[in-house]
Amino acid sequence: MATESDRGRDSRRPTQMPREGWKDILARTGRRIGEDHVSVMAGGIAFFGLVALVPALAAVISIAGILYEPGVVTEQIAQAGAFLPQDVVDILQSQAAGIASRTGGGLGLAALAGLLLSLYSASRGVNNLIEGINLAYNENETRGLVLRNLVALALTLLLATLAILAMGALVLTPALLSVFGFTGNVELLVTLGSYVLLALAFMVSLGVIYRYAPARRPAKWSWVSLGAVCATAAWLAASALFSVYVTNFGSYNETYGALGGVIILLLWLWISCFVVLLGAQLNAETEHQTARDTTRGPDRPMGERGAYMADTLGAGRGEDKTG
After folding, report:
1. How far, in Å, CA of 235 to CA of 199, rounded?
2. Based on CB atoms within 10 Å of each CB, which residue in 48, 104, 282, 292 is the most buried?
3. Is residue 301 part of a domain?
4. What are phi and psi for residue 219, nearest 5 degrees?
5. Is 23 part of any domain?
6. Domain count within the chain
7. How far is CA 295 from CA 25, 57, 306, in A?
8. Range of 182's domain?
9. 108 pLDDT above the threshold of 60
């Protein structure tokens, strides 16, 4: 029978977790996917994400308009067709083009008011994601309405900023290739590198969300990184596989007619939300495996850490399922 040390109860970071500890973590994570109805929660978040999609695009285009031509966003969305279903790309492009046609460069008073309204509307979708991550970490929302909305607004602004920086990488890459005369395999490598930057931006944004979204003392970065890395890899793989399925085997347009593209977009959002929540569940149960303090700041004894997963120990396989 595995001892406490074999289970990783003394691990200071996930990389120190032994094999038996990972078996416990994965067993609890799998169990909680069903107990917390993660697929249903992901469906709810995906729906509100769909509602918030246009305001989110408007916010990104408004900010990007300060640095780039508004149409740049539409062009960059087209490049995502390598791993997104074409119907999703078409809808995003159509919405972005409509917004860009109404958005000028610069940031006057009217544009600033529109940007703030777009950010607030998009943050309502992030609020639903916060609720799902609270559930993953077994936390009740204790922040007041104002503070919770400020957290959601800050996370929304962060995501928009990361999207714009990633766009900048894609915009600058061809220009740099042209200046230095790179062609052939070098061009391919640099182009692939720009997509790696996109993946890194997604991973960083997930790490920030996992750390600051739940209503608890923030976890140390090492305890949110694992879920961010795994969720990013799973999201890229799932998006690519879903794209292949829709292109070669799906018949949504025949079944749903004009609504086919919207159904595909909603399914892709559901997959994305499920993967993000799965990363949060994995992070939470990894914290739940160690008796060491996983929260920010000086070490505190269990019960005084301000985080359920850090203040309690998860049951090992074969033990009573407490927590």
Report:
1. 10
2. 282
3. no
4. -75, 155
5. no
6. 1
7. 18, 34, 8
8. 28-290+307-311
9. no
**C-alpha to C-alpha distance for 39 and 158, rounded to whole angstroms:** 26
Rg, the chain, Cα only: 21
Q: Is residue 10 part of a domain?
A: no
Residue type at 126?
Answer: V
Tokens standing for 145?
Answer: 């309405």
Determine, yes or no, domain membership for 250. yes
For 54-92, how does the pLDDT look when each residue is reduced to its tens digit (9 = 90+)?
777 777 777 666 666 656 666 666 665 556 677 777 777
- Give phi and psi for 268, each to the nearest 5: -65, -40
CB atoms near residue 309 (< 10 Å): 27
Q: Scanning the structure block, which residue is given the tokens 């936390």?
A: 139
295: three-class secondary structure by DSSP: strand
Across the chain, mean pLDDT equals: 81
Helix (H) or strand (E) holding 70: none
* 268: amino acid identity, one letter: W
| Range 176-188 average pLDDT | 64
